[in-house]
Amino acid sequence: MFSAYDKAGDVSYSIGAFPTVELIKRRPEDVIGIALRSDLRMTDELAELLAPVREVTEVNDRAVSRVAKKGNAFIVGAFRKRYSGFPPGAHVALVHPSDEGNLGTIMRTMLGFGMTGLAIVGEGSADAYNPKTVRASMGAIFALDICLYPDWKSYARDRGEKKLLFMLDKRSKTLGSVPADGCALVFGNEGAGLPPELADEGSPVVIRHSREIDSLNLPQAVAIGLYETTRHIFAEK
User: Fold this and answer.
1) CA end-to-end span of the chain, whole Å?
2) Residues 170 and 115 in one domain
3) Contact 174, 146 (CB under 8 A)
4) pTM given for the model
């Protein structure tokens, strides 16, 4: 069960207490197994958290070390990957993201701003269920609906929402000056950004910043985009 991770397979792993607890809380039906290190101190609180998956929980040092590889994890979980569509409306679309750590950070940020629909566009993109992604998300991945599209054409055909395209273009307007309610927030690859030809597919927008830097990194851009387009929801009343 706790073998080397296979991107093409149906199983992935949560490494560490926090993401594994989120897995158990949010998707217990997808849990295949939980492995604990023998030196983990079992508390009443932990026993209660593990109760829903008690039948598939075991003390297994080898399984933990095989999956975690480093010595700082005391618990790992094996679970079934899940991809699903989500209702029409606001969501984040990432076109050819390349870094699992960035992808996980974006997932956590999305959940923080109440955005739960994620479209990953392009074959060869960063793996949503790589254990590195799962860990970087701090378990937020288990609260998201994730849909994969092989290319932009298939994504655009399936998702009819207005699209805010975060890119430099002669038609780009400043983020915040374009209505964003119900829109898809579309971001490109960490290095190349969105291809210029996509500028006709929606409303190009930019995040203004000082000239002291060339650009924001992808997780920063997504965080600012989410903040700007959802702040009316979280504004103090």
Assistant:
1) 50
2) yes
3) no
4) 0.94
Whether residue 22 is contained in a domain is answered as yes
Q: For 142-158, what is the mean pLDDT?
A: 98
Residues 75-129 pLDDT 10s: 999 999 999 999 999 999 999 999 999 999 999 999 999 999 999 999 999 999 9
* CB 70, CB 47: distance < 8 Å: no
Query: How many independent structural domains does the chain possess?
Result: 2
Q: Is the pLDDT of residue 236 over 80?
A: no
Q: Tell me the two tokens of residue 23.
A: 């897995």
CA dihedral 63, 67, 73, 79 (to 10 degrees): -90
The answer to whether position 175 is within a domain reads yes
For 8-30, give one letter per residue: b (16+ CB within 10 A) or e.
eeebbbbbbbebbbbbbeebeeb
